[in-house]
Amino acid sequence: MSPSDDLDIIASSAADFGAVEIARTRFELKVRLPVPLADGRSHAYRLVIAVFGGVATAREEKPLLLPEFCPERHINRDGSFCLFWRAVDDIVIDNVSAARIWWETLIRFLQQQVRAARLRQWPDANGRAHGEKAAMHQLHAERAAGRLGAPFPEDLADGRLTVEVSNSSAHGPAVRLLRNGRRLYSVWRRDRRVVNQRRPCLCPKGARLRPVVLKSCGDHGAAAADLALELQLMAEQERRFWKGFDGAQCCGTMDGCPLAKTETSVHAERAG
Known about the structure:
The structure is a single chain. The protein has 272 residues and is of the alpha+beta class. It has seven helices and eight strands. It has helices spanning 3-14, 86-89, 96-119, 132-148, 152-157, 220-243, 258-271, and strands spanning 20-24, 28-36, 42-52, 55-60, 161-166, 174-179, 182-188, 193-194.
């Protein structure tokens, strides 16, 4: 299928979502897209849409309503929107149904942008970690939490689970899993196992009058180790992701953005 054929599929559904075609070339489609908001208002975006190899991308024609670049708001360096994670949630534009899903995804993304600008943080708790490697570790952590069962998936989604690394043991580094800042358990990173496997399991069976220990509760020992270690690896890859943007200018629209911290430290070093 040629690029113009892919673009035809996207264009064929544009009017169904209120998009008005402004201009078109073989490779790009320029549209005006009104995005309805919950309070009845709408924001109109002028967008450039391109499709290559079945992959559709969108960006604002000029950065008027959105930042030119903001990882926290899922806007790439070239201004294109990070609408989904292709490794898991890919949308291949090979039919009208896929095109409609893409348009729906784009509109939801732009609605979230309005909320992000107001809240100064990304509103979707299901957002993915930054960077391909970090997102993959996040996915593995989510699967491990699912194997352990409630409340771990909810705690993970709500950001209540964090990790820290201790290097003070003959067994090598240990990764501590914390819930709301309080330690739940520790994992030997080298051996990929929970330090105390005779402790009560983390699932409801561990709270019985005669608790089932972690070692004997199916694969919960492995799941607990995977959860802690994948979260630690995700954090490492997130730091590497942001390190790659050293010197990039922060747009100033999101609270706690690592780019703002990097910018501050660079200015401090220059002043010193």
